[in-house]
From TrEMBL:
Residues 9-172 form the N-acetyltransferase domain. One of its GO terms (molecular function) is acyltransferase activity, transferring groups other than amino-acyl groups. Pfam families: Acetyltransf_1, Hisat_C. It comes from Leptobrachium leishanense. This is N-acetyltransferase domain-containing protein. It comes from the Eukaryota. InterPro entries: Acyl_CoA_acyltransferase (IPR016181), GNAT_dom (IPR000182), Hisat_C (IPR056483).
Length: 375
């Protein structure tokens, strides 16, 4: 590469022995809430993932990986990073090309590449990828000694679930696998009919749902009005509003109403709501600092508030004594202002404001990656 004045670069399959080198070039990534230090060794054991390091003079200078999803037809690129002293010199392009060439050669059935980025990706990326969706990001920092007070404040701001909404329920994985074959419809709550789980965009095929089970993702669901669900052997009927018409932002509306009875009031149907919560994990920000991602699916603000509290309370059960949490909430843009107001007074963590999902089509290659690099 002409932009490098260094010796030949090697690209190798990453190993456990490369961990320290990868972490060394990752200092400050994602403002200290980098997921890779925690997930690196688990990623190595994942048969659906390939990981690569670029080395100069036997030192790690870059990292990249891909995960094959959607039953083998899509790959998601994750974890790209370059040593600070080599950024802007073409190293990212070298390892990305090798990663994509390897993907095409080893997985000829893969026809699409997806990735997630924060706001303002470079124009060169937008020339290659199409934008599938974007979501608002609201991040907060919860200190250990503030947790109890924070939950009291948030719970005081919640709507009454007993009156207005069916309470959300955590799902076991038998329920997850059948979730969209019942009253909850993908097209009502999932943009493009795919999930974005902790920055990983995937479809709802069974193989992907099984992945979330391995990762111990917490699925929380609010079923649509008039839906029934068996809980502990009892059939519970979701309650409907008995007062005025209510929309997502609390205003009144006559559109898409459903009738409670022939003479009673009509209400706007809640089409359901879903959230996915990652297990809590430690991050390089400092001792006792942990990260939690909560992905929200749906556009009902009241449901969104309830899900954030339920997911937070469930996650902090695993929080070590004295630990603190950086929690990022990902939601549809229409919910940004409402969630920001709901979380008012809690310390904000300003990492990014937007999450973008990008995709491009690829074709398999018939020749192996460049012989100047080694796998």
């Amino acid at each position: 590469m002409t932009t490098l004045s260094t010796p030949e670069m090697q690209i190798l399959q990453a190993t456990a022995g490369d961990y320290e080198g990868v972490i060394a070039i990752s200092e400050g990534v994602f403002m200290g809430i980098d997921y890779l230090p925690f997930r690196y060794h688990a990623w190595l054991k994942d048969p659906q993932r390939r990981m690569f390091v670029a080395k100069l003079e036997e030192k790690v200078v870059a990292f990249d990986s891909f995960l094959v999803v959607d039953g083998g037809v899509t790959a998601v690129l994750q974890g790209l990073r370059v040593a600070p002293w080599l950024r802007g010199r073409g190293v990212a392009g070298i390892i990305q090309k090798f990663t994509l060439d390897t993907l095409r050669l080893d997985h000829p059935d893969v026809t699409k590449i997806r990735l997630t980025r924060t706001e303002d990706p470079p124009p060169t990326m937008l020339n290659k990828y199409r934008l599938l969706h974007s979501k608002a990001v609201v991040s907060i920092y919860l200190l250990a000694d503030e947790l109890e007070e924070t939950f009291m404040v948030l719970e005081s701001r919640l709507p009454s679930t007993s009156q207005d909404f069916p309470p959300p329920v955590f799902l076991d994985y038998s329920e997850v696998r059948s979730l969209f074959s019942g009253p909850l419809k993908e097209e009502d709550i999932l943009p493009g009919r795919f999930l974005i789980q902790s920055w990983l965009p995937i479809t709802t095929c069974k193989a992907n749902l099984d992945l979330t089970q391995r990762w111990r993702v917490q699925w929380l669901c609010t079923y649509p009005f008039s839906a029934t669900r068996k809980i502990d052997g009892l059939n519970e009927l979701s309650e409907v509003l008995a007062s005025s018409d209510i929309t997502n932002d609390g205003s009144t509306s006559k559109e898409d109403d459903i009738s409670v009875s022939s003479t009673g009031p009509s209400i706007t149907a809640v089409k359901g709501f879903l959230s996915l919560g990652t297990p809590m994990f430690p991050v390089p920000l400092g001792d006792g600092k942990n990260r939690l991602d909560i992905d929200l699916f749906g556009t009902d603000l009241s449901c969104a508030k309830i899900h954030v509290v339920f997911q937070l309370k469930e996650a902090v059960k695993a929080l070590p004594t004295g630990g603190s949490v950086v929690c990022s909430v990902f939601a549809e843009e229409i919910l940004r202002d409402g969630l920001t107001g709901f979380l008012d007074g809690i310390t904000l963590f300003s990492r990014c404001r937007e999450q973008l999902v990008l995709e491009m089509d690829i074709k398999p290659v018939k020749t192996p990656p460049s012989t100047q690099c080694h796998s």
